[in-house]
Amino acid sequence: MLENEDVINTYLEKTCDAESELLKRIARETYLRETMPHMLSGHFQGRVLAMLAKLVKPKRILEIGTFTGYATLCLAEGLDKEGVLHTIDINEELEERVQRYFDISPFGDRIKYHIGDAAEIIPEIEGNFDLVFIDADKKRNLYYFETLIDRVVSGGLLLIDNVLWKGRVLTDHPDSQTKKVIELNETVAKDSRVEKLILPIRDGLFVLRKK
């Protein structure tokens, strides 16, 4: 539909709110220092996450897949004044740098940064969530959905990233990773506990509202 994706993305970024100086710094340093910088949510998707969080005004957020903390800080913009955001990542090599980003942000005292296997850490975090963002190992996304859906409050949001998988969900001969994404999408599409739609931004963002 769009002949030049880069041009439209530039336009989208120009017509939404600007990034903070800290978010610009995180993006710049991610592209300079990381081997897979495309994992960063980026300017436009970051504004989408911030907008959704502000609409929900969550007291409790759970994020699976911190990476360099860009999306974390976008989601934190919508936190209730006494809210808390738990974020989990398995890459301990990034811990010191990402924690530094959080510490200098306005939300440092409300972000709880966990390093380790999300499947082991999630049961250790007590309580329910108003917003969950899943952006980690795609092969385990269905597991995360099924584990967390009953811990999302009524009216809360569960967001899952990369559900279009660079368009490979439409291929006739999907590889094993793509099959997992397709299985997730088909399972969620049939789940009557949530209202759902996929926003076709970047690599596809599944937005689920708990009934």
Observed structural traits:
211 residues, alpha/beta, Rossmann fold, 8 helices, 7 strands, globular
Question: Your description of this structure?
Answer:
- It contains eight helices and seven strands.
- The radius of gyration is 16 Å and the shape is globular.
- The protein has a single domain (5-210), classed as Vaccinia Virus protein VP39 (Rossmann fold), CATH 3.40.50.150.
- It has helices at 5-14, 21-33, 43-56, 70-76, 95-104, 118-121, 141-148, 176-189, and strands at residues 60-64, 84-89, 111-115, 129-134, 152-161, 194-199, 205-210.
- The chain has a seven-stranded mixed sheet with strand order 3-2-1-4-5-7-6, with helices on both faces.
- With 211 residues, it is an alpha/beta fold.
- The mean pLDDT is 95.
- Keywords: Methyltransferase, S-adenosyl-L-methionine, Transferase.
- GO terms for molecular function: O-methyltransferase activity; S-adenosylmethionine-dependent methyltransferase activity.
- One of its GO terms (biological process) is methylation.
- This is Methyltransferase.
